[in-house]
Write a structure and sequence with these properties.
By secondary structure, the protein is an alpha/beta fold. The chain has a single domain, classed as Vaccinia Virus protein VP39 (Rossmann fold). Helix content is 37%, strand content 21%. It has eleven helices and seven strands. The chain has a seven-stranded mixed β-sheet with strand order 3-2-1-4-5-7-6. The longest helix has 17 residues.
């Protein structure tokens, strides 16, 4: 649900803070649905590529940690070789799940089912889906428990993929925005997909023997923002959700001052550059 900067493998937050952040999103479910960005279709198609060509039937996709359905809706709208996919959205937070179900009703998405559940105990039979995707969510999983569950529900050769949207702080003014907000940003480059550290290694180690080593790719993306909508988006990030109110408002006031003083953002609407990180692993046949 948040950016990879909150990856627990990076050792940047305590276990207690990580748990508080993971549980914080329900309080902002409506705002999350309104303000969080979607994902570039190229990234989604790349993530699904190993599974989409081999299914021989409408692809069955599990959106794990689906939140308010940002990724769910995009998956349901895909035109794939086997036709529109069948999508199951699984989300543990009751407020996020309620928002997701309300959205599905408004969108009249007939090929989507939304249920309560967790990555560590997926409410599905063995080998029942061709792909498991997690948008802005896998870093919240207890991967030592979740990866065997993901393996269990995938068909042979099925794919597990994670997607993350990160503000592209290779862009100078975005790096300045991160400094103004006090966020522990990361420069989201494809070169960060090395084997030595980071979320790629974290997922690889948990899935060793079950999945192929993660492949990574990056995709350019953007979101039209204003100062008001960007600050509203920040309010849905876990680091702000768990802040003391006075501290949160002080930081967001500094962000507003920064945006007003920065040429790229001072005149109303602007495009926020996003780098979407994608990691995918294929279920190894005969493992487990």
């Amino acid at each position: 649900m948040d950016a990879p900067a909150e990856d627990p493998s990076a050792g940047r937050v305590t276990d207690d803070e990580h748990s508080r952040r993971a549980a914080s999103f329900g309080a902002a479910a409506r705002a999350y649905a309104e303000h969080r960005p979607d994902y570039p279709l190229a990234a989604i198609r790349w993530a699904l590529e190993p599974a989409a060509g081999q299914a021989g039937h409408p692809v069955r996709i599990l959106d794990l940690g689906a939140g308010t359905g940002k990724l769910t809706a995009q998956l349901a709208g895909l035109a794939l070789d086997g036709g529109r996919p069948n999508v199951l959205a699984v989300e543990p937070d009751p407020h996020m799940l309620a928002e997701l179900r309300g959205s599905l009703h408004r969108w009249s998405l007939q090929t989507v089912t939304a249920v309560a559940g967790r990555a560590e105990c997926i409410p599905l039979p063995d080998e029942s889906v061709d792909a498991v995707l997690a948008g802005q969510a896998a870093h919240w999983f207890d991967v030592d428990r979740a990866m065997p569950e993901i393996f269990r529900v995938l068909t042979p050769g099925g794919v597990f993929a994670g997607l993350w949207n990160a503000d592209d702080d290779r862009v100078g003014w975005v790096a300045g925005l991160h400094q103004a907000s006090g966020r522990r940003g990361m420069v989201a480059r494809t070169s960060d997909f090395g084997d030595d550290d980071g979320i790629s290694a974290w997922l690889r180690d948990a899935g060793r023997g079950l999945f192929s080593p993660p492949e990574g790719s990056g995709f350019e993306h953007s979101q039209l923002r204003s100062a008001d909508s960007l600050i509203a988006t920040m309010r849905t990030h876990s680091m702000f959700l768990i802040m003391e109110p006075a501290d949160r408002e002080a930081v967001l006031s500094s962000v507003r001052d920064y945006l007003a003083a920065t040429p790229q953002t001072a005149s109303g609407e602007f495009s926020l550059p996003i780098w979407t990180i994608a990691l995918r692993s294929v279920k190894r046949p005969g493992s487990g």
